[in-house]
Amino acid sequence: GAYTFATGLNRKGWAFAGSVVARWADKGIVEGSFYNSAGYFLSAEKVFNKQHSLSLVTFGAPTQSTQQAAVTQEVYDLTGSIYYNPYWGYQNGKIRNSRIVKSFDPTVILSHDFKIDDNKRLRSGLAYHYSMYSNSALSYYNSPNPAPDYYNWMPSNQQNKVDASTVDHIFRTGDVNTTQINWTRIYKANIDNNLLYPNATAKYAIERRHNDLEELSFTSVYTQQSEASKFTGGVEAKMATGKHYKTMDDLLGANQWIDRDQFAEQDYPGDPSVAQNDLNNPNRVIHVGDIYGYHYDLNVKYASAFIQNEWTYSQFDMYCAAKVTGTQFYRYGYMLNGRAEAVGAQSYGKGKVWYTTNPSIKAGITYKVDGHNRIYFNGLAEQRAPQVDNSYVSVRIKDTSVPMENEQILSGDMNYSFIYPGVRGRISGFYTKVSHSSDLYGYYDDVNNTFVNFMLSGLSKQYQGIELGLSVKLNQNFTLSMAGTYADYKYTSNSIGTKNYENGKFGDSQDTVFTNGLKIASGPQMAGNVTLHYFHPKMWFVDVTLNYFDNNYLDFAPTRFTKTNMALYTTDAIKQAYGTQEKLQGGYLLDASIGKVIYLSKKRSININLSASNILNNTKMVTGGYQQARLNLTSSNTIETSNLNMFPNKYYYAWGLNMFLNIGYKF
């Protein structure tokens, strides 16, 4: 439900507008999911005179929702549902999801508009934004993994056929004590542990991972319009602090949690200091709401200035612009981490401050062939500061970074558009080259019992393709429109992979990663749709759209493409299982909508719209997922060939038939 109002500008120069919205779903289409959200928008403007006006805007959307997991094809087949979700289970007869996201991002913007004269204008704004984002997850200590889709629980990983048949039967019959989280068993394990070891760490708990962002920014843009040109210049300054930490959300019946790294405990039994998450507060007892595990800030200061000029002539339009940006960032740690201290790395206090200055230029020209046809070109050369999140090898633990490199970007596009009575369209070709880029991956290593950070640096990426759009008015009531793209997004260089084991068992190591030629997993690289639109003079609207998607690639695990691991792929079967990137199968989806506007007296109206997506209920289209990073290795560090599919790819499926009804009343 939503309600929106606007007063318009009154005689005293005031204008007010606002909107409130609420969304609620007790049960989503995905098993064990729910959604609760509210939103607000409020604005006030005061027009002092013809030159000056001041406005204040605030908005935000407190939201609570659940997450869905990508799972293997084996799990989908066992449960018989593309909506299967391992993140939930029954607790006292009620569904409880272990992965709950909470977010709220209140924002306030104060703007001043100064109309200097008919041709000059200065707009300035000051904004404050605080984003609170967190998600919960089950954690466990010296206990079996509680995830029902954990690979060791699967039929394919049982040691004998009898066990495999038993597990297969349990899954297929839908025993929720096995196919979902068993909350009763988790609480019992903690309560029993309380009786035996009242001062010990909980067996199971729910942690909440926080990623908050506080921003203060200022912008000012000046424009000056003349008969054939327009000049624009502006400045921007921003201070931002990313606040990253973990809190205890629920002890699940346990007495407490001790702030130590359980995996480092196992690997360093003779040196308990290594396992300490905070040597300043060793063996700290954690209760609900306490910060533990990690706590650090990423502080960024940013300033930029730009100028742009546009020229308009009878047959040509042109523009050019230049910008220079200065960025400063550093890490500030609130915990003295034992694994960092063991290797002589900094974890506590202010880390090294990084500075970078980055220029960029862009230009474009439009050739107006005649009143119906245009050809235009845009070009960009830009240098960007490295992304702060991707600059540290193991940011939760220490200040260690990879060699800092500015991203280099070259981009261009050429377009042809036409407009004639009854038909209009556009064709575009685009190309973007990104070099000196970096990406950060993470995964859990079962062999070494620790979380692994894997940094890719020195990446080069290429994005190129063509886009088409066409609209044809068939008659007074029907319009046919088509759109499509054929693209190629890929890595064009090998890269350096830096691996960090968070339990400190091994030092950071580097290896060549054969990323050259791998596809960038950003959705279908071939897509198209055809829409038939019907309009009736009595304000009926009908749309039927056929969509096609193809050339969609699963995100790859860089560890499977390192020089060291690729040497282990001694047969085609092993390479196919571990050293290839999966291309997902393409397919079609059919959507439709029907709408009606009913006009009432006194400028009131009712708008009704019914939309349906995936009308043919295609439940076989995989939309995304990822390749697991783990390898099935023997004790002699070779590939175990008896079960090459122990760590298969995980998938998300497109939802089946969905319908949505919207009713609006305007008064």
Descriptive labels:
667 residues, six-stranded antiparallel barrel, three-stranded antiparallel beta sheet, mainly beta
Task: Give a brief outline of the structure.
The protein is mainly β. 9% of the residues lie in helices and 54% in strands. It has 8 helices and 35 strands.
Structure report:
The chain has 667 residues and is mainly β. The chain is built from 8 helices and 35 strands. It has a 6-stranded antiparallel β-barrel with strand order 3-4-10-11-9-5. Strands 6-34-33 form a 3-stranded antiparallel beta sheet. A two-stranded antiparallel ribbon has the order 7-8. The longest helix has 14 residues, at 183-196. The mean pLDDT is 95.
Number of E-state strands: 35
Mean pLDDT: 95
Query: Largest beta sheet: what is the strand line-up?
Result: 3-4-10-11-9-5
Compute the number of helices.
8
Shape: globular
Global Rg: 29 Å
- Which structural category do the helix and sheet elements fall into? mainly beta
Main beta sheet = 6 strands, antiparallel, barrel
Low-confidence stretches: none
What fraction of the residues are assigned to beta strands by DSSP?
over 45%
**Fraction of residues in helix:** under 10%
Distance between the termini: 16 Å
What is the secondary structure topology, with strand pairs?
Elements: E1 2-6, E2 14-25, E3 35-47, E4 52-60, E5 63-66, E6 71-72, H1 73-79, E7 88-91, E8 94-97, E9 100-104, E10 107-115, E11 120-140, H2 161-172, H3 176-179, H4 183-196, E12 204-225, E13 229-250, E14 257-258, H5 262-267, E15 285-286, E16 291-312, E17 316-333, H6 338-342, E18 349-350, E19 354-368, E20 373-384, E21 407-420, E22 423-445, E23 450-473, E24 478-491, E25 495-501, E26 509-513, E27 526-536, E28 540-550, E29 552-553, H7 563-566, H8 572-578, E30 583-584, E31 587-599, E32 605-613, E33 622-626, E34 650-653, E35 658-666
Antiparallel strand pairs: 1-2, 2-3, 3-4, 3-5, 4-10, 5-9, 6-34, 7-8, 9-11, 10-11, 11-12, 12-13, 13-16, 14-15, 16-17, 17-18, 17-19, 19-20, 20-21, 21-22, 22-23, 23-24, 23-25, 24-27, 25-26, 27-28, 28-31, 29-30, 31-32, 32-35, 33-34
